[in-house]
Design goal:
Structural class: mainly alpha
Protein name: Tetratricopeptide repeat protein 19-like protein, mitochondrial
Order of helices and strands: HHEEHHHHHHHHHHHHHHH
Family: Belongs to the TTC19 family.
Subcellular location: Mitochondrion
Shape: elongated
Largest sheet: 2 strands, antiparallel
Main location: mitochondrion
Radius of gyration: 38 Å
Strand content: under 5%
Number of helices: 17
Distance between the termini: 96 Å
Keywords: Mitochondrion, Repeat, TPR repeat, Transit peptide
Strand order of the largest sheet: 1-2
């Protein structure tokens, strides 16, 4: 209700009161801004309570007019009070408040995403997106759209994820961001991975090739303090790209060789740039040893696993027990049961130290298998 309507309502109540009372003393008090109330003997006197005359009037009058007066005046006073008590925000203050609300919505959505509550996160992000549009904040819109795209990606809603990621790319490129920006490369890699999972192999290959080309060129020019994040992204793309190649079922043998060459090239690049200390490098090297084993390249598999374990010990890699376990499997596959037993025991020791029950269970299975195979051989 606006101020004019509120004042009219108040005036209507006051008019009803004046019609039912002796108006002269009351009008005199209003001129002096003093509250009046009726006391015994029918005389008027000033009181301490601002609305004392309201309640005295209703005690003296039980007519509908007095009741109407109380209703109108009571509501009117309340509305007038609330109208004047609420601060009037400027346009700038409203914009600031809206932006703060949007940021709070984004923070809440991120928390829901981390906890796996995707539906709640999606609802809040749509609210935040509307606020960003009302604010005419293109950067805010892109940020929220990127969060939505990643939400769809995690939920495997690939149609929505693809459309939203492409919209983010369109806006980022239109804003002048270069193609080798980490955010653009990562989105491109996620699109390639989605294409791989939906068997759009040509698009997937083109996407991974694009990402690796941009990242390799970027790694050659970056200073040391800026390489870490780019290196991790580079290894992530290598991992996804090799997984894609291994899933091309109709070219299994060819894909195995191609995936091996891809990881070899990536690891060689990392060595040249002296970036072998990261957990991502060691995980990829472990995967390469598995590819060597599948191709019966046992000596190469053993060599790279020993190198990987050495790096993992120095960096305290969380998968160290699994690396020892993988090496034990390679020895066993190659018929070297003695080294397999020794390495399996080391894997168990590390698994217990790291409190890794999954690794402990896998080591026990391997040890039991080794005992059976040794018994069969003897």
């Amino acid at each position: 209700m606006d101020l004019a309507k509120t004042l009219r309502l108040f005036q209507s109540g006051l008019r009803c009161f004046l019609e039912s009372q002796r108006v002269q003393p009351l009008m005199s008090s209003l001129k002096r801004n003093q509250p009046y109330s009726k006391v015994s003997g029918g005389k008027w006197s000033t009181g301490n309570k601002t609305n004392g005359f309201f309640f005295e009037a209703i005690n003296r009058q039980s007519s509908r007019t007095s009741l109407r007066y109380l209703l109108y005046c009571g509501v009117g006073v309340e509305l007038v009070g609330s109208t004047f008590s609420e601060p009037i925000q400027t346009a700038e203050e409203k914009q600031k408040q809206l932006k703060e609300d949007m940021i709070m919505d984004i923070k809440r959505a991120i928390l829901f995403l981390r906890d796996g509550h995707f539906r709640k996160a999606e609802d809040i992000l749509h609210v935040a997106l509307t606020k960003a549009r009302n604010l005419k904040d293109p950067q805010g819109e892109v940020y929220v759209l990127d969060l939505l795209a990643n939400l769809y990606y995690e939920e495997r809603q690939y149609d929505k994820a693809e459309a939203t990621f492409k919209e983010v790319l369109r806006r980022e490129l239109a804003a002048g961001k270069p193609e080798d920006t980490d955010a653009i490369v990562e989105i491109s890699a996620k699109l390639a991975r989605m294409y791989a999972e939906t068997r759009q192999f040509d698009k997937a290959r083109a996407g991974f090739d694009f990402c690796l080309e941009k990242l390799e060129k970027k790694l050659e020019t970056l200073t040391e303090d800026k390489k870490e994040e780019v290196v991790d992204l580079f290894f992530k793309v290598l991992q996804w790209g090799s997984e894609f190649l291994l899933n091309v079922e109709d070219k299994a043998d060819e894909a195995l060789v191609e995936a091996t060459e891809l990881i070899e090239h990536g690891l060689a690049t990392a060595k040249r740039l002296e970036q072998t200390g990261s957990a991502a490098y060691q995980t990829l090297a472990n995967n390469l040893s598995t590819l060597y084993t599948w191709q019966n390249r046992m000596d190469e598999a053993v060599a790279i696993m020993k190198e990987t374990i050495k790096l993992a010990v120095a960096s305290e890699h969380w998968s160290l027990s699994h690396f020892y376990l993988n090496l034990a499997h390679i020895y066993a596959e190659n018929g070297d049961f003695k080294n397999a037993e020794v390495t399996a025991e080391k894997a168990m020791e590390v698994a217990r130290k790291l409190k890794d029950p999954e690794a402990e269970g896998e080591v026990k299975k391997l040890q039991e298998s080794l005992r059976q195979r040794i018994a069969e051989r003897s």
